[in-house]
Amino acid sequence: MSESEFVAPPGGVRRELPRAAASSRRRVTVTLVLRRRSSIPDQLSAGPDTLGRELFAERYGADPVDVEIVRTALEKLGLEVGGSDLGTRSVVVSAQVRTLVRVLGTRLWIPAELDGIVLAVLGFDDGPGELLAALAAAVHAEPTPPVLDVGVADEDWTEQERAVLAELLADAAALGIKVVRPRR
C-alpha cells in the first residue's frame, strides 16, 4: 500500500515514536476501537431503560462485518489479529514494534479502507517503548548512569505487572541503568 492509502484515525494527538523504539523487535499488542453498529438512544443513557450486556452488545456493539473487514485488511498487511469483543467494540492486534511501524507508520495511520470503522488505536504510544527510549536518552545525557528505583516489592505487583517489570528491568540493565529494588 502506498502512503496515500492510509489515513489518521479520528481525534487525538499522535506523537511520532522515537527512532530507537520504532525499530524494536519487542512484541506489542494494541487495541483497536471500532465504531458502534448503531447509535445508543437517549433513553438508554439518560433514562430508566436498561439492557443486559449481551443484548446491548448485539444492538450497539461493533458489527461482526466490521470486525471481519479489519481482520482481513490487517492480516493482509502482516499483522496478527487476535480476539475481538463486539460489546466493547475492540479488536486486539499484535506484532513486533518494527512491523507495526512498517505497516501503520510512526504516527499510527490506518489503512484507508478502515476509515470510519476504526475509531482509535490504543496502547502503542504509551507502552514500554517510550519509557525505554527515555531511559536510553537519560543514559546518554547524564555524566553518570541513572538509577531506576523500583520502589515496590514484587509481591505488590500483579502477575502481568511483574512480567512487564521484568522486561523493563532487563532492558534497563542492558542500557547500563542501575536498578535499585526495595529491601525485604
What does it look like?
It contains seven helices and eight strands. The protein is α+β, with helices and mostly antiparallel strands and 184 residues long. Helix 6 packs parallel to helix 7. The model is unreliable at 138-143 (pLDDT under 50).
Order of strands, main sheet, comes to 3-4-2-6
Shape: globular
What order do the helices and strands follow? EHEHHHEEHEEHEHE
Strand content: 15-25%
Instruction: Tally the beta strands.
Output: 8
Oligomer: single chain
Tally of individual helices: 7
Overall mean pLDDT stands at 74
Q: Over all CA atoms, what is the radius of gyration?
A: 20 Å
Give a quick account of the main beta sheet: strands, pairing sense, barrel closure. 4 strands, antiparallel
Spans of at least 5 consecutive residues whose pLDDT stays below 50 are 138-143
Q: What is the helical fraction, as a range of percent?
A: 25-40%
* Structural class determined from secondary elements: alpha+beta
Kindly report how far apart the N and C termini lie: 54 Å
How is the topology of this model organized?
Elements: E1 6-7, H1 19-22, E2 27-34, H2 42-46, H3 53-60, H4 64-76, E3 80-85, E4 90-96, H5 97-104, E5 110-111, E6 118-122, H6 128-141, E7 147-149, H7 159-174, E8 178-180
Parallel strand pairs: 7-8
Antiparallel strand pairs: 1-5, 2-4, 2-6, 3-4
Helix pairs in contact: 6-7
